[in-house]
Design brief:
This protein is α/β, with parallel strands linked by helices and 125 residues long. It has one domain (2-122): 5'-nuclease (Rossmann fold, 3-Layer(aba) Sandwich), CATH 3.40.50. It is built from 7 helices and 5 strands; from the N terminus they run βααβααβααβαβ. A 5-stranded parallel β-sheet has the order 3-2-1-4-5. The radius of gyration is 14 Å and the shape is globular. The chain starts with a strand and ends with a strand.
């Protein structure tokens, strides 16, 4: 499964349900967009190190931004930005899931509901 940034934030906040969800999965994937959001959100060197160690210890694969993902994300932004306020980061994450034929796990269903072809698993903390 591909994890949205918010799932890892829930883990950082101590949410056991989110942690268990990740622990049960043997094929943990993360979009490069989510990884960058997590690193950028670190408030200090300690949090920065925590994020990097967490990704490494739980053996997340970081999926790169490819030309196809970028193109698909652009289409989502063009189609949905004015109607549903589709943001670039969410478009890249959704496009990563679709291009890699993966289910996206997120607690932010409203961010992704406009993308019909997306396989979305809604996490409820």
């Amino acid at each position: 499964m591909l994890y949205d940034t918010d799932i890892l934030i829930w883990v950082q906040r101590g949410n056991q349900k989110a942690a268990l969800l990740i622990e049960k999965d043997n094929d943990r994937q993360l979009s490069i967009q989510s990884y960058m959001e997590l690193i950028q959100g670190a408030k200090n060197k300690s949090q920065h190190k925590y994020v990097k160690n967490f990704i490494r210890e739980f053996e997340f694969s970081i999926l790169p931004l490819t030309e196809n993902i970028g193109h698909r994300a652009l289409i989502y932004v063009e189609e949905h930005a004015l109607v549903s306020n589709m943001r670039l980061g969410d478009a890249i994450i959704a496009a990563t899931a679709i291009e890699n034929n993966m289910t996206l796990v997120s607690s932010n269903a409203k961010h992704f509901k406009v993308i019909n072809e997306l396989q979305l698993k809604v996490f409820k903390p």
